[in-house]
Amino acid sequence: MAEKRNIFLVGPMGAGKSTIGRQLAQQLGMEFIDSDNEIEERAGADISWIFDLEGEEGFRKREERIINELTQKQGIVLSTGGGAVLSKDNRNYLSARGIVIYLETTVDKQFERTQRDKKRPLLQDVEDPRQVLEDLAKIRNPLYQEIADITLPTDEQSAKVMANQIIDLIDKTQI
């Protein structure tokens, strides 16, 4: 990969975007940025607090501004929040400004990976978190697919193996 194109990771919560993204950036010698962490740093508060105060709509506006800004950088690996694809603008920014990798996972695996995580506002204080994940998947999975240059299932592989697969696929497909 002679020229370092931006690599954007999309997919549902618990797909491994941040973990795989860090590994990928390290192997490629690129900067890793997690859009959710960036939002938290700039707001001086965690995402749950932003959701409580501004609602999902307020959070999504912040997310759109950040993704617009971050996707204009060069040579980054960006992990996006699971709902970033809900914004048509975000989908346009991502697909136009880099290689989009959809990290696909099953609802069962998401549930397993997120059930003890208290930093998932959409899963807090709900009666049936698995149903929430299924409902989100119905809406979001087609949007991830729409903008993906490469789709990879993440359920059975380590982050290092996934990062190597992504590098190989990018090199082979010359996206």
Automatic annotation (TrEMBL):
Top-rank taxon, per record: Bacteria
Keyword Nuclease: no
Pfam families registered for this protein in UniProt: SKI
Residues involved in substrate binding: 36, 60, 82, 140
GO biological process: amino acid biosynthetic process; aromatic amino acid family biosynthetic process; chorismate biosynthetic process
Binding site for Mg(2+): 18
Location in the cell: Cytoplasm
Binding residues for ATP: 14-19, 120, 157
Catalyses which reaction(s): shikimate + ATP = 3-phosphoshikimate + ADP + H(+)
EC number: 2.7.1.71
PROSITE patterns in the cross-refs: SHIKIMATE_KINASE (PS01128)
GO molecular function: ATP binding; magnesium ion binding; shikimate kinase activity
Pathway the protein acts in: Metabolic intermediate biosynthesis; chorismate biosynthesis; chorismate from D-erythrose 4-phosphate and phosphoenolpyruvate: step 5/7
Comment on bound cofactor: Binds 1 Mg(2+) ion per subunit.
Cofactor: Mg(2+)
Any one GO cellular component localisation term in the record: cytosol
Keywords recorded for this protein, A-Z: Amino-acid biosynthesis, Aromatic amino acid biosynthesis, ATP-binding, Cytoplasm, Kinase, Magnesium, Metal-binding, Nucleotide-binding, Transferase
NCBIfam families assigned to the protein according to its UniProt record, in alphabetical order: PRK05057.1
Similarity remark: Belongs to the shikimate kinase family.
Quaternary structure note: Monomer.
HAMAP family: Shikimate_kinase (MF_00109)
Function: Catalyzes the specific phosphorylation of the 3-hydroxyl group of shikimic acid using ATP as a cosubstrate.
Protein name, UniProt field: Shikimate kinase
Organism the protein comes from: [Actinobacillus] rossii
Gene this chain is encoded by: aroK
